[in-house]
Amino acid sequence: MPVISAYMNGTYLEYNSAEVSDLIVRCQSGNRHAFDELVSRYQRYVFNLIYQHLGRTDDLEDVAQEVFLRIYKFIRKYRGNASLESWIYKIVLNYCRTHARRRSTWQRIFGIQASSARADDERSYEVLDTLPSETYDPAKTVEQRRVAEDILDAVHSLPDIYRDILIMREVNELSYEEIAQILTISIGTVKSRISRARDLVRAKVKL
Amino acid sequence: MNRSLVKRWLNEYLDGEIGLADKAELERLMAENPQLREEYQRLRQLGLMLGNQPEISVHPSRFRARVSDALEEAQRPLFSPQRAFALAMVVALIVIGLSMSMLVYQQGMLGRSGTVSEAQPRASLAAMPEQGHSLVIETGVGAERYFSRLLLSNQLGLIEASTIEPILSQTRVYEGAVCNSAANDPLFNLHFQRSLGQPVSIKTNAHVARSLGLLAQELSGRMPTLMVRSGETSSMPLEQFSSVYGEDRKMTVVLLFNAQH
């Protein structure tokens, strides 16, 4: 279906705001300014997703750049069957899996981590710790942080299919339907995998 | 109540995805069962902990500029002047490399023309009629070098005249040979007028055969391959050769040579 007629029929509006639909159409027509706008709009979202799924990594910025290059390459294939955010999430997830595999291969073969870490002042991003609540108790906060880190480590040690789905649900609070769309699985499978993922993490951290 | 069903309800309840009727039933069960309430609280705590992730803040324009540069780079035409120049250089290097290889190969082939290559000696031997009690010596060196050294050794008294005599009388290898003094060669290698690549056959005895074999061993640095009959090698040390066969045992010696070097 031609891009303009899809927009006129309101296809993109089913899951996106009018503003985002317009942005998609302009990007699909090859408008570079529109794509710059898309990068500005979704860069924080993409960085956070990568950080959540890959964990602390020196090449966060490289991965994010590659994700946006893929978005640019494939934006014409977006058909409006899900929100643009879900579509981007799918690209992030696929690329994170590819990247993790490559990273693991490099480490296995050469025993080194392929990285292009930049100096702090050259970075485009900053990691902000979540702020303590008003009822700030230093001792409690330290303990909570330790538990949170243990849980996160446990999540990152899970197989892909459980780790990704748990982050989608618990961190990004996606609905079962959104998760099913992104992972292209049934809602029943989403339910069983989330339940299994929670069991696995609890077993690891003895919660 | 089915445990797996309750577990499923708990997960759906936690995720806000439970149906109204199931929700009412689960809440009733939790009100009655403190263990179930505790289970729910643990699952909730897991979600709260996981949700408490650091946030990433991205510089408003720096990353966008980076992506823009990367896109420019990716969209640059495949045959830009710089890339075309680099490609031309690579092609030129390949062509030069191939030409040099061809030249070296051709020179190697020309250097071997008119002589017998390393693979050839045994092949040329096959064409010779087999004679009784023959010894074939694969000298492992070129004919010019072998015969030059044979003559020099004889002149210096290192090899007795009886060793070189059959060669002088039975072959014409030294006809027209001159000392290559212009080459400033301390070993006085001879310059032969004609190619010496062919096997040389001499009728002699076991004593001379031993001496000829020892010279080959000295020049090549290894024991020459000996064939008592065509195709059959012997590992017998040369020193024992004449004692086993007898000093005066008549035999035909065939000398095989490598390409000249």
Description:
The complex is a heterodimer of chains A (207) and B (261). Chain A has 207 residues and is mostly helical. Chain A folds into two domains: 1-116, RNA polymerase sigma factor, region 2, helix turn helix motif (Rna Polymerase Sigma Factor, Chain: A, Orthogonal Bundle), CATH 1.10.1740.10; 134-207, Arc Repressor Mutant, subunit A. Chain A has helices at residues 3-8, 18-28, 32-54, 60-74, 84-110, 138-156, 160-171, 176-183, 187-205, and one strand spanning 125-128. Chain A starts with a helix and ends with a helix. Chain B has two domains: 3-49, no CATH class; 120-258, no CATH class. Chain B has helices at 3-14, 20-32, 34-51, 62-75, 81-112, 120-126, 143-155, 161-170, 206-220, 238-245; strands spanning 55-58, 134-142, 178-179, 190-191, 200-205, 225-229, 232-234, 250-258. The radius of gyration of chain B is 45 Å and the shape is elongated. Chain A binds chain B through residues 32, 35-36, 39-40, 43-44, 47-48, 51-52, 60-61, 64-65, 68-69, 72, 123-130, 144, 147-148, 151-152, 155, 166-167, 169-171, 173, 175-176, 191, 194-195, 198, 201-202, 207, and chain B through 7-8, 11-12, 15, 17, 42-43, 45-47, 49-64, 66-68, 70-71, 74. Strand 1 of chain A pairs antiparallel with strand 1 of chain B, so a sheet runs across the interface.
Short recap of the structure:
The complex is a heterodimer of chains A (207) and B (261). With 207 residues, chain A is mainly alpha-helical.
* Span between termini of chain B: 97 Å
Low-confidence stretches of chain A: none
* Strand elements of chain B, count: 8
SSE order of chain A, one letter for each helix or strand: HHHHHEHHHH
Most extensive interface, chain pair and sizes: A-B, 47 and 33 residues
Distance between the termini of chain A: 51 Å
The averaged pLDDT of chain A comes out at 85
The helix tally of chain A amounts to 9
Q: In DSSP terms, counting alpha (H) and pi (I) runs of 4 or more, how many helices of chain B?
A: 10
Total strands of chain A: 1
CATH topology of the largest domain in chain A: Rna Polymerase Sigma Factor, Chain: A
Protein structure class of chain A: mainly alpha
| Beta-strand residue fraction of chain A | under 5%
Estimated helix fraction of chain A: 55-70%
Q: Give the overall form of chain A.
A: globular
Strand order of the largest sheet of chain B: 5-8-2-6-7
Write out the CATH superfamily name of the largest domain in chain A: RNA polymerase sigma factor, region 2, helix turn helix motif
Largest sheet, strands/sense/barrel of chain A: none
